[in-house]
């Protein structure tokens, strides 16, 4: 999908600055092309590759500026591989970064604040002539108030939640709706403030768009909210179920999942409005054994989820779960995202009741069961998955794509495995 952070930075950059954008996932980076500076947004899984890219530019004496979740949560690490680190949100600080760059006074660190979300400029022209999925990403809010132990969102935003001004959301959607069949509202939790979300939903109704988003399950107990979801064109929601075990939910500080009667009542409420579910599950918590996987898959199939994810717990740096596992001596690699021994989809920690290899394989087995032909057929017949023609037409292609990718990335190294260079630290 289009990487929205890049468009945000491009939109914040003064118009007298020439900007070029390259997506390392899709195209070769022209390292010898003249440039005054390089800017990258870091996620944990892309950090190693970003540091490889930074080293290539360091050989050319070109300053590198990094920001994003990973750089903000481990700024000391990021500062080893970049001349400058932007910590937090960029809106209130980016003009200062550019001004310092112009005057040759670039600082090692910049601390962003909590900008008023009245309308952040987004320059999508940088995506021209690149073959992204035909879905437009929209940001209507940031952050989440819940204290889930494994979540980097609550660490980055310090358990705050803010929503964008309604007019700015409507204007952005109107500028894009003729160029897409569906929108993805990429909020960390669209239901972070249910009352404010209702105001946005009412403003969306006249736009007659089709959209999906992600939200916490507590919102499924508010019938007015669900009615507005339906009327505003929402076709599907990603819900983090994480576990079917109440003891696990309590430990991960997500007991709110079981409020007001739990999952079944919440899903029955949602089902009345024919809204599809993308359900996610995380394994490797203290009370997970081999049976937990089959129970989760059975639940997801019986509930007719449109798609679902079955992944092992990943201790992202800066999160409470990372600190806890480190203190307990259960991290197999302290900095797994940089360790050459670590590979994609491998558990970087030691679970209690399973080995790390069992945890990895059981996740693969769960995906195989959920994306089996019998499961796809059964789920495809559910009323909510057939309610919208566009979503129903895409049900089989999307599920077959997931079926093909059940273990396709297992064992892949992070970073570019063919890269022959050496990570060069800032002197």
Explained architecture:
This protein has two domains: 4-111, Cobalamin-binding domain (Rossmann fold, 3-Layer(aba) Sandwich), CATH 3.40.50.280; 133-404, pyruvate-formate lyase- activating enzyme. 36% of the residues lie in helices and 13% in strands. It has helices spanning 4-12, 47-58, 69-73, 75-81, 94-102, 152-156, 166-176, 194-204, 223-231, 246-251, 263-271, 291-302, 320-327, 356-370, 373-380, 389-404, and strands spanning 38-41, 64-67, 84-87, 109-111, 136-138, 141-143, 161-163, 183-185, 211-215, 234-242, 276-283, 307-312. The strands form three sheets. The protein has a six-stranded parallel sheet with strand order 5-8-9-10-11-12. Helix 5 links the parallel strand 3 and strand 4 (109-111). Helix 8 (194-204) packs parallel to helix 9 and helix 12 packs parallel to helix 14 (356-370). The protein is globular, with a radius of gyration of 22 Å. The mean pLDDT is 94.
Would you summarize the structure shown here?
The protein is an alpha/beta fold. 36% of the residues lie in helices and 13% in strands.
Helices, strands, pairings?
Elements: H1 4-12, E1 38-41, H2 47-58, E2 64-67, H3 69-73, H4 75-81, E3 84-87, H5 94-102, E4 109-111, E5 136-138, E6 141-143, H6 152-156, E7 161-163, H7 166-176, E8 183-185, H8 194-204, E9 211-215, H9 223-231, E10 234-242, H10 246-251, H11 263-271, E11 276-283, H12 291-302, E12 307-312, H13 320-327, H14 356-370, H15 373-380, H16 389-404
Parallel strand pairs: 1-2, 2-3, 3-4, 5-8, 8-9, 9-10, 10-11, 11-12
Antiparallel strand pairs: 6-7
Helix pairs in contact: 8-9, 12-14
């Amino acid at each position: 999908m289009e990487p929205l952070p890049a468009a945000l930075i491009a939109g914040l950059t003064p118009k007298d600055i020439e900007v070029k954008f390259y997506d390392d996932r899709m195209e070769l980076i022209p390292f010898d092309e003249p440039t005054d500076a390089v800017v990258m947004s870091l996620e944990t899984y892309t950090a190693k590759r970003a540091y490889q890219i930074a080293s290539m530019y360091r050989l050319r004496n070109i300053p590198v500026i990094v920001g994003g979740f990973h750089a903000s949560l481990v700024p000391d690490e990021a500062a080893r591989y970049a001349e400058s680190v932007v910590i937090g949100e960029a809106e209130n600080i980016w003009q200062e970064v550019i001004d310092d760059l112009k005057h040759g006074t670039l600082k090692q660190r910049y601390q962003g604040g909590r900008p008023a979300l009245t309308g952040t400029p987004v320059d999508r022209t940088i995506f021209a002539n690149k073959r992204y999925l035909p879905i437009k990403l929209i940001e209507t809010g940031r952050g989440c108030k819940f204290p889930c132990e494994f979540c980097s969102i609550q660490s980055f935003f310090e358990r705050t939640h803010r929503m964008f001004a309604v007019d700015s959301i409507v204007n952005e959607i109107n500028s894009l709706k003729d160029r897409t069949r569906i929108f993805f509202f990429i909020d960390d939790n669209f239901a972070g403030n249910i009352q404010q979300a209702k105001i946005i939903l009412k403003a969306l109704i006249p736009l007659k768009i089709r959209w999906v988003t992600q939200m916490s399950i507590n919102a499924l107990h508010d019938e007015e909210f669900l009615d507005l979801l339906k009327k505003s064109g929402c076709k599907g929601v990603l819900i983090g179920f994480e576990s079917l075990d109440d003891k696990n939910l309590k430990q991960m500080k997500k007991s709110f999942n079981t409020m007001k009667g739990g999952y079944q009542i919440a899903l029955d409420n949602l089902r009345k409005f024919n809204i599809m579910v993308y359900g996610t599950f995380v394994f490797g918590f203290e009370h997970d054994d081999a049976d937990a996987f089959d129970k989760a898959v059975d639940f997801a199939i019986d509930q007719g989820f449109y798609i679902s994810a079955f992944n092992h717990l990943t201790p992202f740096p800066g999160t409470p779960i990372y600190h806890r596992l480190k203190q307990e001596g259960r991290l197999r690699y302290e900095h797994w995202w940089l360790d050459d021994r670590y590979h994609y989809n491998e558990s970087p920690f030691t679970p209690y009741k399973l080995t790390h290899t069992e945890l990895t394989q059981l996740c693969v087995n769960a995906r195989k069961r959920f994306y089996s032909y019998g499961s796809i057929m059964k789920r495809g017949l559910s009323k909510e998955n057939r309610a919208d023609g566009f979503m129903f037409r895409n049900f089989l292609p999307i599920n077959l794509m997931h079926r093909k990718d059940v273990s396709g990335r297992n064992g892949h190294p992070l970073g570019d495995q063919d890269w022959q260079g050496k990570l060069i630290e800032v002197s």
